[in-house]
Structures are given as C-alpha cells and as structure tokens.
Specification:
Layout lengths: L1 H23 L3 H22 L2 H25 L4 H10 L1 H20 L7 H6 L3 H4 L4 H9 L4 H22 L10 H6 L2 H4 L12
C-alpha cells in the first residue's frame, strides 16, 4: 500500500506539472509533448485504480491519435508566434473573465456536492466485478454489449456520419488535364506545327 500511495502521488504530481506546462510553454510543439506526458501519467493513475481498459483507451486514442495529430498539425502549419502572443495579450481580460466565471461555477458545484445514499460502500469497493471473477475490461464489455448495445451502435453511426460529413466538407474537386496517348500518336504535323517566315528586323 505504501508503494501504491507513493506511485499515486508521483504520477499525480507529474500530471499536474505537465498540465501547467501545456498552457505555459511558449512553443506549441512543447505544449503537445507535455500533453502526451500528462496523458501517460493519467493512464498510470487509472491503472492504479484498476481501470485498465480506460488507461489503455487513453493511451491508444488520445496519445496515439489525437495528440500525435495535434503534433503533426502544429509542426506542418506555418504559425506566426509573435502574432499569437499579441492576440493573447489583447484578449487576456476576456479570457480572465471567462475563467473567473468557470471558477465560480466549479465552486458552486463543489459546495453543493452530496454523496448519494450507499455511496460509501461503493467507494470502499469500487470493483464489484473482481468479486465475480471478472476483470474490469470483461465486466465493461458485458455491460456495453448487453444492456447498452443499441446506444453503442447509435454512437458508432453518429461517428460514421460525422466522419462522412467532414470528408464531404473538406473535399475539393480538381480539374486535372489528363494525357491521352491515342490523340498524341494520331495527330498530324500540320495540326500542331506552324511554319512562319520571319523577315530580318521584323517580329512574328
């Protein structure tokens, strides 16, 4: 238990520090790298809680797809960092106001926080699936593909429609001049050649 407690505080400290560096780093590439570090440590925290499925999904989806996509987009775009900093200074009061409103909302939510009846027992044993001999991933799979199978399929269809919509919106039709070998072979010299006699001192 002591080792698990030390590991929890270590991963939590690194996660918080990486999150702070994401928003304070001057280089966007460094921010994305710190974001990947925060994802890895968050996955380690989930592993300590026994939620190995969520931990692996966090690494596969967010680190393997989203964060890497952010990294490639930031590296490929020609971003004017000086102009970005000017925009940050210009909109700093509005951003501070929005942040203050969100902070007040969080304080209101935390102030009205109440534990549901029977929540103490659930917190004491957060993994009821282990008592039945099932792992966290097996219990989650049984729940998704039995009780919530229709909701799961509907979510997949929504993602499919969103993907098709993104492709349609970004698709650009281009008129490409294609080479026709038969036309080039069958053409006659008088169709493509013009002989002009140019006198000395005169143009065409």
């Amino acid at each position: 238990m002591v080792i698990q407690g030390l590991a929890f505080y270590l991963f939590a400290l690194i996660t918080v520090a990486a999150g702070v560096m994401v928003i304070t780093a001057r280089n966007p590439v460094h921010s994305v790298l710190y974001l990947i570090l925060a994802f890895f440590n968050s996955a380690a925290l989930f592993l300590l809680m026994g939620a190995e499925f969520v931990a692996f999904i966090l690494i596969i989806v967010y680190v393997g797809a989203v964060a890497v996509l952010f990294l490639f987009v930031v590296m490929m775009l020609d971003i004017d960092f000086a102009r970005l900093r000017e925009g940050v200074v210009r909109y700093l009061p509005i951003g501070a106001l929005v942040g203050l409103v969100l902070l007040v909302e969080l304080l209101v939510v935390l102030g009205a926080w109440t534990i549901a009846p029977g929540g103490e027992t659930r917190i004491a044993s957060p993994q009821p699936s282990l008592e039945s001999g099932l792992t966290n991933t097996e219990a989650l799979g049984n729940l998704i593909y039995t009780d919530y199978v229709y909701a799961f399929q509907i979510a997949g269809l929504i993602l499919l429609v969103a993907m098709i919509g993104a492709i349609v919106l970004t698709l650009r039709t281009r008129t490409v001049r294609r080479q026709r070998i038969a036309d080039q072979v069958n053409r006659r010299p008088e169709e493509v050649l013009v002989i002009r006699k140019v006198e000395p001192g005169e143009g065409i």
